[in-house]
Structure formats: C-alpha cells, structure tokens
C-alpha cells in the first residue's frame, strides 16, 4: 500500500503562513464591516433626531466622520431607501425604509401580550382579579383580565365599557392627562352617578385625580359597583402619555383600608414594568 506523501517542511511552513494571513485578513475584513455598520447606524440615528434634515458637512461633523466616509455610507443607505437626499436643498433625511422598519416594531408591540405576564404576576401577588383597559370615546374599555382564584371575585368582560370618572382604570388615565383633555371629557360625558359614592362634581373629582397623581395610583371606592374596590395605575407610551391602565379589583372585605397602599404600590410597579416593556417612559411625577 502506497504511503501518503509528506509535505516538505518549507512547503508546510509557507502554507501555514498563508492560512494565518488569510485568517487575519478575514478577521480584519469582518472588523471593518462591523465598523461600517456602526457608523451607518450612527448616521441614521443622527438624521432621525432632526426634523428638517441635515447637510453632509453637518451630519459628518456631528458623528465625527470625514465628509467622504459619511457620503459613502449615506449613499449606501440611500440605495436601500433608509435615507433620502433632497438635491434642491442638499439635505439628507430619514427614508421610507426606516419608517417601514419602525412600523414592524409597532406591529409586534402588542399591549395585551406585553401586559399579560405582569398581570399574572400581579394576580399571584395580590390574590385579586387584574384588569387591563384603554380609553376609547371617553370611556374605559377592558381589553384583558386575569381572574382571581378566590370564590368571590370581580369580573369585567373584555370589551366591556365603564365611565372614566368612576372607575379606577379611568381615573388612573385621567390623572395623567392634561387639564384641557380632562375638561373636554367631562363636558362630553358628564358625571353620571352609578352608586351613592360616585363623585358627582368636577371640583371633588379633580381633587381625587390630584391624589391619584401624587400617589401613583387611583382608587375606585365603591364608585362603580357597591361592595367593590379597584386600584389602578396608568401605562405610558414613549411620549409619557397614558395609553392604558392596569388594575386590581376585589370585594371590600378583602381590599381593606390597610391593604390599599400596599396594593397601590404593587399596581404602580407593574404598570411601570409594562411601560418599560413597551418602550414607554413613566413621567417624573409618577416615579
């Protein structure tokens, strides 16, 4: 049987050096590609922060690149429609593809999906029913619920509507709105009484909303249904505007005066967790 031919020492040494050089060249190439990608994303982020666009010299200086390097990267981004060049004004701005990529994030940013794990955790922690609601046409609409395991528990059908002024989820969202928006809602919907404890005048309601803003949670103290207490906190978007609210609901016999601050703090923290999950920002006054 013929023996395999051995590679001469010099030949094997040369081959090893060439392989090393090829490996080093590949590593350097990948490193350059990563640097180019980071620089391109930096340019894109910088253009996204401008309303009117920026000239080549402006954006290059702002990100610390030479005009030639910035132009090469911007041209590549323009080919993929991530940036747009206005030849008349000689300005670069964010392109349509960047908008489409952002919309893909918005499609995956499901409020209910993001909130449900935190709702389950809050139900386990409080042993009470947890609700998620949004504002629609000056009412609070329930989107989802995680029911308590207790025999006696609160129930809110998803899709059900309740007035903003006498529900904890509604008051939590109202407390985070500008005064003008609150005034508009109250003018449109009024303050209909559902129980003897429903707040029936705007002065008292605004005082209650101020307390909710200070504490970080709103309380429905038998204002919507006799024998039922609910505690809620608002969920915010990236502009620190309220987009929803999460609440715990249960009978008065279990949600006593002593439990309200403890449950309020738990609800406030879970609302902040959901806000963070959605990329929102809790306003400074709500932290």
In summary, what is this structure?
This protein is of the alpha+beta class and 287 residues long.
- The count of strands amounts to 8
Cross-sheet strand order for the largest sheet? 5-4-3-8-7-6
- The number of helical runs is 9
Structural class of the helix and strand makeup? Answer: alpha+beta
Mean pLDDT: 86
CATH superfamily of the largest domain: GAF domain
CATH architect. name of the largest domain: 2-Layer Sandwich
Q: Quick one: CATH class of the largest domain?
A: Alpha Beta
Low-confidence runs: 1-10
Describe it:
The chain is α+β, with helices and mostly antiparallel strands and 287 residues long. It folds into two domains: 9-102, Winged helix-like DNA-binding domain superfamily/Winged helix DNA-binding domain (Arc Repressor Mutant, subunit A, Orthogonal Bundle), CATH 1.10.10.10; 109-286, GAF domain (Beta-Lactamase), CATH 3.30.450.40. It is 49% helix and 17% strand. It is built from nine helices and eight strands. The protein has helices at residues 9-48, 56-63, 67-79, 96-108, 111-126, 168-175, 179-189, 202-215, 259-277, and strands at residues 83-86, 91-94, 129-136, 139-146, 161-163, 218-221, 228-236, 242-251. The strands form two sheets. It has a six-stranded antiparallel sheet with strand order 5-4-3-8-7-6, with helices on both faces. A two-stranded antiparallel sheet has the order 1-2. Strand 6 and strand 7 form a beta hairpin.
């Amino acid at each position: 049987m013929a023996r395999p031919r051995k590679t001469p020492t010099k030949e094997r040494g040369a081959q090893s050096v060439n392989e090393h050089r090829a490996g080093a060249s590949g590593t350097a190439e990948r490193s350059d590609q990563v640097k180019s990608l980071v620089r391109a994303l930096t340019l894109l982020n910088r253009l996204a922060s401008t309303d009117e666009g920026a000239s080549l010299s402006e954006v290059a200086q702002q990100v610390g690149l030479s005009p030639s390097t910035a132009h090469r990267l911007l041209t590549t981004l323009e080919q993929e429609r991530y940036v747009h060049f206005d030849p008349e004004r000689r300005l670069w701005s964010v392109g349509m593809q960047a908008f489409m990529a952002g919309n893909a994030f918005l499609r995956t940013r499901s409020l209910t999906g993001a909130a449900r794990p935190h709702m389950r955790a809050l139900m386990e922690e409080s042993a009470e029913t947890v609700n998620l609601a949004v504002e629609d046409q000056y009412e609070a609409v329930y989107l989802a619920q995680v029911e308590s395991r207790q025999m006696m528990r609160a129930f809110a059908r998803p899709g059900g509507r309740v007035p903003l002024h006498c529900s904890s989820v509604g008051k939590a969202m109202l407390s985070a709105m500008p005064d003008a928006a609150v005034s508009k809602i109250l003018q449109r919907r009024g303050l209909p009484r559902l129980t003897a404890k429903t707040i029936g005048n705007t002065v008292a309601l605004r005082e209650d909303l101020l307390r909710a803003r200070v504490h970080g949670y709103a309380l429905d103290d038998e204002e919507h249904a006799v024998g039922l207490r609910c505690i809620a906190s608002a969920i915010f978007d990236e502009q620190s505007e309220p987009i929803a609210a999460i609440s715990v609901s249960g009978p008065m016999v279990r949600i006593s005066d002593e439990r309200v601050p403890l449950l309020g703090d738990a609800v406030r923290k879970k609302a902040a967790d959901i806000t963070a999950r959605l990329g929102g920002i809790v306003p400074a006054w709500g932290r």
